[in-house]
Design goal:
homodimer; 335 residues; alpha/beta; Rossmann fold; Dihydrodipicolinate Reductase, domain 2; 2 domains; 6-stranded parallel beta sheet; 14 strands; 32% helix; globular
Chain lengths: 335, 335
């Protein structure tokens, strides 16, 4: 059963990856459309050996589309999603624009694919930092019910789009040459620095990025009693977010049990041979679809608590891969 | 009352800074000796306008020395400290070699200068990641008794000495030029990467660096009931360690109270205007003696718990400054 697909924001970093994943995963594509803003008109993108012109994102563009996958900023999503839904498409939206609306399922297939069933034309994919965390939390939560998470992130500059990558590379080169670089994507220099702000500050002293980790986690697990204390930090890494995670559970989980649970879980790969220097790092998890877990150990400060380290490609599982996996479930009816 | 001083490991990154601080802070120096291994013989170092030859570290070198400040690896400290003590000097040892010995005070002057009184010839200065954390913990602990800390670090390459800095700069340049760099100080590439290992792994799954944060904190506060869950991570930053800290206290502390306590505390500077993008970062805390604190907020996942962000120059307050402050207290009798 082939599906007609539109990729919205097709020329961006994540949109480009969505296209690549549809090809690589042999998604049953009927017709495909690449939609973008006027700036990208005139460009052609290759798909399955064919050169396809980029089209303007407008209400008419969604006619005949079954699934629209949106990799756009929030404000663009607010514009196109109603058009796509009105045209009869189901939208898989990677932006934050619709994630917390009650009638929009927020889905990570390994965690809550069953939520897809309740969709009313829009399915949201979570924020990158949330997605990898909930994949890692899932087997522990199923086994022992997670009550509280303290998470601190090391987030790559690719999370700020192509301009973020340029800033890191050019900013680093300038710093090495003792030159100046005018940053475009960041308000502080990111080369050889760490910046404890991603997004804008809320009244409670947390950033929008941090509150996504709190609120999206509860929605995905459909459990408002899970407490999360997040600190989100940008680091001078090109791609892959790393997270230091401490989870307190209702019942005890040993390190050996946790390792077995992680190993048996869908979407997780355990890299945990610390004595041999084997643990996840951006340097060994890039361009992979899995959520990598390592440094699994007992939290020595509390009973029923575990600490671990989690790395995943924020453009893949954190964005494009998760959206394509949702689209696959939609297409196959497997949810 | 001038004191005769020996700087041991005088040609290293921290030893060089100790020398600079003694001059800048107008330490009452009588005679000064620069001691190092045979490799540095023949070098001269300037102090107060005078060129002073580096001398070989041996048992005779400590004759007539009042205070020896050691900025050496553990194995060198194990060699020279007994010589210095036998010669009648008091040693301020920055290495980890003697820190946990019961008869050796482990001192951060802002926290426990009174412990200096009990010394028997050796006073230890803590690990860099511990020092900045306990300075920040002190006012909260005094006000509300800290029961548990979850800390995740972002540690600079200068913590691995001069070779660490070379590795970061040359490794970054090589990566930008798509060349290879053979790392000397690190077992994994650190350029554009984060590495969740500092030191060697213990049986409990924590690294030696992490266990220092647990054990040294308890010793400094003389409170074995303080629990710490640490995760220590190397990041591609030249200098200054950053720490994400969550502290649970026995009694409640509001954010406003915490800010006042931090502002009134010795050795702490508050940089906390998040709406204006003001918070501590390696980029704005380098080459300063203070411990910088920002992003002070309620831990939304638990009662009686606070989250904050802490940055300090690991070569200064994390090493040289703390040692010189201990020496100043010794010299003045102010403890």
């Amino acid at each position: 059963m082939k599906k007609n697909i539109a990729i919205v924001g097709a020329t961006g970093a994540v949109g480009t990856l969505v296209k690549k994943l549809l090809e690589a995963r042999e998604f049953p594509v009927g017709k495909i459309k690449f939609l973008a803003s006027a700036r990208s008109l005139g460009r052609k993108l290759e798909f399955a050996g064919e050169q396809i012109p980029v089209e303007l994102m407008n209400p008419e563009a969604f006619k005949g589309i079954d699934i629209a996958i949106g990799s756009t900023p929030d404000e663009i999503a607010r514009e196109f999603v109603p058009w796509a839904v009105a045209a009869g498409a189901v939208v898989v939206d990677e932006s934050a624009a619709h994630r917390m609306l009650p009638h929009v399922p927020l889905v990570v297939p390994e965690v809550n694919s069953e939520a897809i069933a309740g969709h009313q034309g829009i399915i949201a994919s979570p924020n990158c930092s949330t997605t990898q965390m909930v994949v890692a939390m899932k087997p522990l939560h199923d086994a022992a019910r997670i009550r509280r998470v303290v998470v601190t992130t090391y987030q790559a500059t690719s999370g700020a789009g192509l301009a973020g990558d340029v800033d890191l590379l050019e900013g680093s080169r300038a710093a090495l040459d003792q030159q100046e670089w005018k940053y475009q994507a960041f308000s502080h220099p990111i080369a050889f620095n760490v910046v404890p702000q991603i997004g804008s500050f809320q009244d409670n002293g947390y950033t929008s990025e941090e509150m996504k980790m709190v609120l999206e986690t509860r929605k995905i697990f459909a459990d408002e009693t899970i407490d999360v204390c997040p600190t989100c930090v940008r680091v001078p890494v090109r791609n892959c977010h790393s997270e230091s995670i401490v989870v307190e559970t209702e019942s005890p989980v040993s390190v050996a049990q946790a390792r077995s649970l992680f190993e048996a879980a869908s979407g997780i790969r355990v890299l945990d041979e610390p004595d041999s220097g084997v643990y996840p790092m951006p340097g060994n998890c890039d361009d992979r679809d899995d959520v990598f877990v390592g440094r699994i150990r007992r939290d020595i400060s509390r009973e029923n608590s575990l600490a671990f380290w989690c790395v995943s490609d924020n453009l893949r599982k954190g964005a494009a891969t998760n959206a394509v996996q949702i689209a696959e479930r939609l297409a196959s009816g497997d949810y």
